[in-house]
Each structure stands twice: as structure tokens, then as C-alpha cells.
Amino acid sequence: MIPNLEEIYSILEKERVPHHIILHSEKVAIISLFLGYFLRQKGIVLDLSLLIAGALLHDVKKYQTLIYGGNHAVEGYYFLKDLGYERIGKIVLYHIYYKPSHPLASITEEEIVYYADKRVKHEEIVSLKERFKDLKIRYGQNFKAWIRMNHLEELTKLIERRIFKRLPFGPEKVLELEKIKEVRDVFKRASENSSFGWWNLL
User: Fold this and answer.
1) What whole-number distance in Å separates Cα of residue 24 and Cα of residue 124?
2) Residue 181 CB: number of other CB atoms within 10 A?
């Protein structure tokens, strides 16, 4: 079961997710939808509505855990599971605790949202290099954390290669999504008609 857009934004409102986190999540969702759309053109089976929902809700518990402690990916998973959205909850969980797929396995919604999240610094779409530079400054406070950040960066580069070797453009194309201002309208149009023209938006 996947909630519609109105229900997703209602969840974010009820959970008092701050505006800046919603803006971040919308950027993650527009990247996820964009990649998912073109991967589907290449025959990869992906649910675009699931991508939108997972991306928009991936930080649903982040603000709460910043205040009260805990892990926002784990909290988000159990929260959504309790609402009956366990499949979305797994996307939320894996955006932090991603389990690498077999190299020959098909690309999943979890993989796309994980990657898309690593392309958004705060509310701005950036390169992986810029995003991990920021992450290392914020979270690499000791040697163990620094090693973990380096490991995640290499994992994300592998995912990037997996995704873009199937697409007719490179990772730099994602930066053009920053031009899109009315992202909710794009989500709505994509939900109603998955064949709308992306190139008219860029």
C-alpha cells in the first residue's frame, strides 16, 4: 500500500517535519523520480509512486531524533510499518543502512533513494564530491567516523556507476533538476501520467 501525495504531506505535517527537511526530501524525491523514469525506459521494473513516497518520507523522523535522540532511519521504519507502509519503511531504513545488491541484480527503489539522498546537500542538488565533503565536515569528527564516511562515499560511487551505465546521460544531468521549482506539480503529474516530457522541464 502506498499513500497518495495528499496523505504523504499530511503525514509530514502531523509529524511536524520542519520546512527545510521537507525541501530536502522534495529534492531527493525529484531525483528519485527522474532516475526511476529513465531506468524504466530501459526495462528496469520500478514503482514511481513508491519512489516518490519513500523519498518524501525518508527523513520523517529526523527532526524528532535530533531533539530526543535515536536513529531517524530506524525510527522512520517502525513508524511507517505501524501505519501499514512497511515497504516504504524499508526504503527509509536503507537510506542509512543500505545493503549492497549483487552486481548483476536489478536496481531497486531503495538503491535509487539512497543515491538521490547523497546528491542533496541541505536543499541543494550537488555532486557526490561536494555532498561527501560536507558530510565529512559535519560527521567525520573522529577517525572511525572518517573511515565510515570514506566507505560510504566509495559505496555510493559504485551505486552511481550501476545506475548511470544504464542511462543515456551522466550524473551531471541530475544537477539540471535544480531548475525545477514546482516539484509538487511534477509529482502530481507523474502520478497521473508517467509519460510526461522531462526534457521540457530542464
Assistant:
1) 7
2) 8
Q: Name the residue type at position 23.
A: L
- Integer-rounded Cα Rg, in Å, for the chain is 16
For domain 5-196, the question of CATH label 1.10.3210 is answered with: yes
pTM of the model: 0.93
Let me know: does 25 contact 11? Beta carbons within 8 Å.
Answer: no
User: 112-148, pLDDT tens digit by residue?
Assistant: 999 999 999 999 999 999 998 988 887 767 878 778 8
3-state secondary structure 134-185: HHHHHHCCCHHHHHHHHHHHHHHHHHHHHHHCCCCCCHHHHHHHHHCCCHHH
Q: Grid coordinates representing 131? A: 555532498
Domain ranges of the chain: 5-196
Contact (CB, 8 A) for 12 and 168 = no
Q: Residue 121 forms beta bridges with which residues? A: 124
Expressed in angstroms, the distance from the first to the final Cα of the chain is 31
108 φ/ψ angles, rounded to the nearest 5 degrees: -110, 165
Strand partners, 120: 125
